Amino acid sequence: MRRFSGNMHGEKYMGNVNTKEVHDLDNEKVNCQIDEIIRLGHDKPFTSLETAHSLGYDNCHWCLGGSTR
Q1: Is 90 exceeded by the pLDDT of residue 25?
Q2: What is the pLDDT of residues 57-67, one digit of tens each?
Q3: How far apart are the first and last CA of the chain?
Q4: Which residues on neighbouring strands pair with residue 67, listed in sequence order?
Q5: Residue 13 has what pLDDT?
Q6: Contacts of 53 (CB under 8 A, 6+ apart)
Q7: Is the entire prediction scored with pTM above 0.90?
Q8: Residue 69 has pLDDT above 90, yes or no
Q9: Percent above pLDDT 90 for the chain
Q10: Are residues 58 and 13 in contact, defined by beta-carbon separation less than 8 angstroms?
Q11: Mean pLDDT throughout 7-35?
Q12: Residue 19, CA distances (Å) to 45, 68, 69 in order
């Protein structure tokens, strides 16, 4: 579910600046803990997955798969 709180403005992808993981909000899973990331102020919006990857973010194991960690 896309968010309009914290730093988010309806973007599909959200990075966690603390863990350097990127999440797909259209495929969010309970284990992603998106609301907690936003509550802590660790949310960084991305309009594309490629942009997140170019900045060193890894895929979330739960919502994107293919994590390299």
Answers
A1: yes
A2: 999 999 999 99
A3: 25
A4: none
A5: 98
A6: 22
A7: yes
A8: no
A9: 97
A10: no
A11: 98
A12: 14, 13, 11
Closest CA to 1 of 27, 33, 23: 27
Q: How many CA atoms lie within 13 A of 4 on its CB side?
A: 1
pLDDT for residue 57? 98
Both tokens of 23, joined, read 């999440």
What tokens does 6 get?
């914290």
**At a CB cut-off of 8 Å and minimum separation 6, what does 50 contact?**
none
Which amino acid is located at 17 in the chain? V
For residue 24, which phi and psi values (nearest 5 degrees)?
Answer: -100, 105
Determine the Cα–Cα distance for residues 61 and 67; give it in Å rounded to an integer. 5
**Are the C-beta atoms of 47 and 7 separated by less than 8 Å?**
no
* Assigned token pair, 43: 């949310």
